[in-house]
Amino acid sequence: MRLPLVDRSGAGRLLAEALRHYARRSDVLVLGLPRGGVPVAFEVARALAAPLDVLLVRKLGVPGREELAMGAIATGGVRVLNDDVIGELGISSEAVEEETERERRELERRERDYRGQRPLPDLHGRCLILVDDGLATGSTLHAAASAVRKAEPGRVVVAVPLAPRRSARRFSGLADDFVCPAAPEPFFSIGEWYQDFRQVSDEEVRELLQRSWG
Protein backbone atom coordinates (compact mmCIF):
# COMPACT_ATOMS: atom_id res chain seq x y z
CA MET A 1 0.00 0.00 0.00
CA ARG A 2 1.42 3.35 -1.07
CA LEU A 3 1.52 6.08 1.53
CA PRO A 4 0.25 8.66 2.16
CA LEU A 5 -3.29 7.54 1.43
CA VAL A 6 -5.39 9.98 -0.59
CA ASP A 7 -8.51 9.82 1.59
CA ARG A 8 -10.71 7.37 3.50
CA SER A 9 -12.57 6.19 0.41
CA GLY A 10 -9.32 5.37 -1.32
CA ALA A 11 -8.09 3.64 1.82
CA GLY A 12 -11.24 1.51 1.83
CA ARG A 13 -10.69 0.37 -1.73
CA LEU A 14 -7.10 -0.61 -0.94
CA LEU A 15 -8.13 -2.36 2.27
CA ALA A 16 -10.75 -4.32 0.36
CA GLU A 17 -7.98 -5.81 -1.76
CA ALA A 18 -6.43 -7.29 1.37
CA LEU A 19 -9.85 -8.67 2.37
CA ARG A 20 -10.88 -10.10 -0.99
CA HIS A 21 -10.85 -13.67 0.35
CA TYR A 22 -13.97 -12.67 2.32
CA ALA A 23 -15.84 -11.56 -0.81
CA ARG A 24 -19.32 -12.87 -1.61
CA ARG A 25 -19.67 -14.87 1.59
CA SER A 26 -23.22 -14.96 2.86
CA ASP A 27 -22.14 -14.76 6.51
CA VAL A 28 -20.02 -11.59 6.22
CA LEU A 29 -21.16 -8.34 7.84
CA VAL A 30 -18.96 -5.24 7.58
CA LEU A 31 -19.18 -2.95 10.62
CA GLY A 32 -17.78 0.56 10.38
CA LEU A 33 -16.84 2.47 13.52
CA PRO A 34 -18.36 5.97 13.30
CA ARG A 35 -17.45 8.32 12.22
CA GLY A 36 -14.12 7.98 10.41
CA GLY A 37 -14.39 4.26 9.85
CA VAL A 38 -17.64 4.43 7.91
CA PRO A 39 -16.29 5.80 4.58
CA VAL A 40 -13.60 3.10 4.70
CA ALA A 41 -16.13 0.39 5.56
CA PHE A 42 -18.48 1.56 2.82
CA GLU A 43 -15.86 0.83 0.16
CA VAL A 44 -14.93 -2.48 1.79
CA ALA A 45 -18.55 -3.63 1.91
CA ARG A 46 -19.15 -2.61 -1.70
CA ALA A 47 -16.05 -4.44 -2.94
CA LEU A 48 -16.86 -7.60 -0.96
CA ALA A 49 -20.55 -7.52 -1.94
CA ALA A 50 -21.35 -7.60 1.77
CA PRO A 51 -23.88 -5.71 3.89
CA LEU A 52 -22.73 -2.66 5.84
CA ASP A 53 -23.74 -1.45 9.25
CA VAL A 54 -22.26 0.58 12.07
CA LEU A 55 -20.86 -0.53 15.39
CA LEU A 56 -21.13 2.15 18.03
CA VAL A 57 -18.85 1.84 21.03
CA ARG A 58 -19.12 3.93 24.17
CA LYS A 59 -16.51 3.88 26.89
CA LEU A 60 -17.68 3.46 30.48
CA GLY A 61 -15.60 5.97 32.40
CA VAL A 62 -14.66 5.63 36.04
CA PRO A 63 -16.72 8.15 38.07
CA GLY A 64 -14.56 11.21 38.67
CA ARG A 65 -11.86 9.84 36.37
CA GLU A 66 -13.76 9.61 33.13
CA GLU A 67 -10.61 9.25 31.03
CA LEU A 68 -10.04 5.85 32.67
CA ALA A 69 -12.22 3.09 31.23
CA MET A 70 -13.87 0.50 33.42
CA GLY A 71 -15.57 -1.07 30.44
CA ALA A 72 -17.44 -0.38 27.23
CA ILE A 73 -20.82 -0.92 25.64
CA ALA A 74 -21.51 -1.47 21.97
CA THR A 75 -24.20 -1.93 19.37
CA GLY A 76 -26.52 -4.81 20.18
CA GLY A 77 -26.74 -4.24 23.93
CA VAL A 78 -23.31 -5.78 24.58
CA ARG A 79 -21.33 -4.74 27.64
CA VAL A 80 -17.73 -5.55 28.54
CA LEU A 81 -16.46 -4.71 32.02
CA ASN A 82 -12.88 -4.47 33.27
CA ASP A 83 -13.23 -6.30 36.55
CA ASP A 84 -9.63 -5.50 37.55
CA VAL A 85 -10.23 -1.74 37.38
CA ILE A 86 -13.60 -2.03 39.10
CA GLY A 87 -12.17 -4.16 41.88
CA GLU A 88 -8.98 -2.17 42.44
CA LEU A 89 -10.85 1.13 42.67
CA GLY A 90 -13.74 -0.28 44.70
CA ILE A 91 -16.38 0.94 42.27
CA SER A 92 -19.85 -0.06 43.42
CA SER A 93 -22.24 -2.03 41.24
CA GLU A 94 -24.65 0.91 41.49
CA ALA A 95 -22.04 3.27 40.03
CA VAL A 96 -21.33 0.83 37.22
CA GLU A 97 -25.03 0.57 36.39
CA GLU A 98 -25.51 4.33 36.50
CA GLU A 99 -22.63 4.91 34.09
CA THR A 100 -23.85 2.09 31.86
CA GLU A 101 -27.33 3.57 31.68
CA ARG A 102 -26.02 7.05 30.94
CA GLU A 103 -23.82 5.83 28.10
CA ARG A 104 -26.52 3.50 26.82
CA ARG A 105 -28.87 6.45 26.37
CA GLU A 106 -26.22 8.28 24.35
CA LEU A 107 -25.44 5.18 22.30
CA GLU A 108 -29.13 4.66 21.55
CA ARG A 109 -29.50 8.32 20.57
CA ARG A 110 -26.69 7.94 18.07
CA GLU A 111 -28.10 4.63 16.85
CA ARG A 112 -31.40 6.35 16.08
CA ASP A 113 -29.60 9.22 14.40
CA TYR A 114 -27.70 6.90 12.05
CA ARG A 115 -30.15 4.04 11.65
CA GLY A 116 -33.60 5.54 12.10
CA GLN A 117 -36.14 2.71 12.36
CA ARG A 118 -33.84 0.11 10.83
CA PRO A 119 -33.41 -2.79 13.30
CA LEU A 120 -30.06 -3.69 14.81
CA PRO A 121 -28.17 -6.38 12.90
CA ASP A 122 -27.97 -9.92 14.25
CA LEU A 123 -24.29 -10.61 15.02
CA HIS A 124 -24.65 -14.21 16.18
CA GLY A 125 -22.77 -16.65 13.98
CA ARG A 126 -21.72 -13.96 11.48
CA CYS A 127 -18.26 -13.22 10.14
CA LEU A 128 -17.83 -9.66 11.42
CA ILE A 129 -15.31 -7.37 9.78
CA LEU A 130 -14.68 -4.39 12.08
CA VAL A 131 -13.34 -1.44 10.10
CA ASP A 132 -11.81 1.85 11.14
CA ASP A 133 -9.71 4.42 9.29
CA GLY A 134 -6.58 3.45 11.17
CA LEU A 135 -5.34 2.32 14.52
CA ALA A 136 -3.20 4.31 16.93
CA THR A 137 -3.55 3.11 20.52
CA GLY A 138 -6.12 0.48 19.51
CA SER A 139 -8.36 1.10 22.51
CA THR A 140 -11.58 1.68 20.57
CA LEU A 141 -11.18 -1.31 18.27
CA HIS A 142 -10.10 -3.47 21.17
CA ALA A 143 -13.29 -2.54 23.01
CA ALA A 144 -15.31 -3.15 19.86
CA ALA A 145 -13.81 -6.59 19.29
CA SER A 146 -14.28 -7.50 22.96
CA ALA A 147 -17.88 -6.38 22.81
CA VAL A 148 -18.90 -8.26 19.68
CA ARG A 149 -17.32 -11.43 21.06
CA LYS A 150 -20.13 -11.43 23.62
CA ALA A 151 -22.64 -11.82 20.78
CA GLU A 152 -21.01 -15.13 19.77
CA PRO A 153 -20.13 -14.36 16.15
CA GLY A 154 -18.64 -17.02 13.95
CA ARG A 155 -15.51 -14.97 13.26
CA VAL A 156 -14.13 -11.56 14.20
CA VAL A 157 -11.88 -9.71 11.77
CA VAL A 158 -10.24 -6.40 12.67
CA ALA A 159 -9.35 -4.49 9.50
CA VAL A 160 -7.61 -1.12 9.20
CA PRO A 161 -5.61 0.48 6.37
CA LEU A 162 -2.66 1.24 8.62
CA ALA A 163 -1.39 0.82 12.14
CA PRO A 164 1.87 0.63 14.11
CA ARG A 165 3.71 -2.68 13.71
CA ARG A 166 3.10 -3.62 17.32
CA SER A 167 -0.68 -3.42 16.92
CA ALA A 168 -1.32 -6.96 15.72
CA ARG A 169 -0.19 -8.34 19.07
CA ARG A 170 -2.97 -6.46 20.88
CA PHE A 171 -5.62 -8.48 19.06
CA SER A 172 -4.04 -11.89 19.51
CA GLY A 173 -6.66 -14.20 21.02
CA LEU A 174 -9.43 -11.63 20.56
CA ALA A 175 -9.69 -11.29 16.79
CA ASP A 176 -9.53 -14.31 14.51
CA ASP A 177 -7.87 -12.22 11.82
CA PHE A 178 -6.06 -8.88 11.88
CA VAL A 179 -5.77 -7.28 8.44
CA CYS A 180 -3.56 -4.22 8.04
CA PRO A 181 -1.84 -3.62 4.70
CA ALA A 182 0.48 -0.86 5.95
CA ALA A 183 2.51 -0.54 9.14
CA PRO A 184 4.64 2.59 8.71
CA GLU A 185 7.26 3.58 11.27
CA PRO A 186 7.67 5.84 13.09
CA PHE A 187 3.92 6.10 13.75
CA PHE A 188 2.66 9.13 15.63
CA SER A 189 -0.89 9.58 14.38
CA ILE A 190 -3.33 8.22 11.81
CA GLY A 191 -3.87 11.56 10.12
CA GLU A 192 -0.22 12.02 9.16
CA TRP A 193 -0.58 9.17 6.65
CA TYR A 194 -3.57 10.67 4.81
CA GLN A 195 -3.52 13.54 2.34
CA ASP A 196 -7.16 14.29 3.21
CA PHE A 197 -8.12 13.48 6.80
CA ARG A 198 -10.89 15.98 7.38
CA GLN A 199 -13.51 15.17 10.00
CA VAL A 200 -16.39 12.98 8.87
CA SER A 201 -19.82 14.44 9.66
CA ASP A 202 -22.90 12.67 10.97
CA GLU A 203 -24.62 13.63 7.71
CA GLU A 204 -21.95 11.81 5.71
CA VAL A 205 -22.32 8.70 7.87
CA ARG A 206 -26.09 8.71 7.35
CA GLU A 207 -25.72 9.24 3.61
CA LEU A 208 -23.27 6.33 3.18
CA LEU A 209 -25.47 4.02 5.22
CA GLN A 210 -28.54 4.94 3.21
CA ARG A 211 -26.65 4.37 -0.03
CA SER A 212 -25.54 0.97 1.18
CA TRP A 213 -28.98 -0.03 2.42
CA GLY A 214 -30.63 1.15 -0.79
Please state the second-level CATH architecture of the largest domain. 3-Layer(aba) Sandwich
Give the helix level as a range of percent: 25-40%
Strand percentage = 15-25%
CATH fold category name of the largest domain: Rossmann fold
Helical/strand content category:
alpha/beta
Enumerate the strands of the largest sheet in spatial order, edge to edge or round the barrel: 2-1-6-7-8
Count of the separate structural domains: 2
* Helix-strand sequence: HEHEEEEHHEHEHEH
Please count the beta strands (DSSP E, at least 2 residues each).
8
Spans of 5+ residues with little confidence (pLDDT < 50)? none
Largest sheet: 5 strands, parallel
Rg over CA atoms, rounded to whole Å, is 17 Å
Count of alpha and pi helical runs: 7
Write down the overall mean pLDDT: 92
3D structure, described in words:
This protein is α/β, with parallel strands linked by helices. The chain has helices at residues 8-18, 37-48, 83-89, 93-115, 139-149, 167-170, 202-213, and strands at 28-32, 52-54, 57-62, 65-74, 78-81, 127-131, 155-159, 177-179. It folds into 2 domains: 8-56 and 117-213, Rossmann fold; 57-115, PRTase-like (Ybab, Chain: A), CATH 3.30.1310.20. The chain is built from 7 helices and 8 strands. The strands form 2 sheets. The protein has a 5-stranded parallel beta sheet with strand order 2-1-6-7-8, with helices on both faces. It has a 3-stranded antiparallel beta sheet with strand order 3-4-5. α1 (8-18) crosses α2 (37-48) and α2 runs parallel beside α7 (202-213). It starts with 7 loop residues before the first helix and ends with a helix. The mean pLDDT is 92.
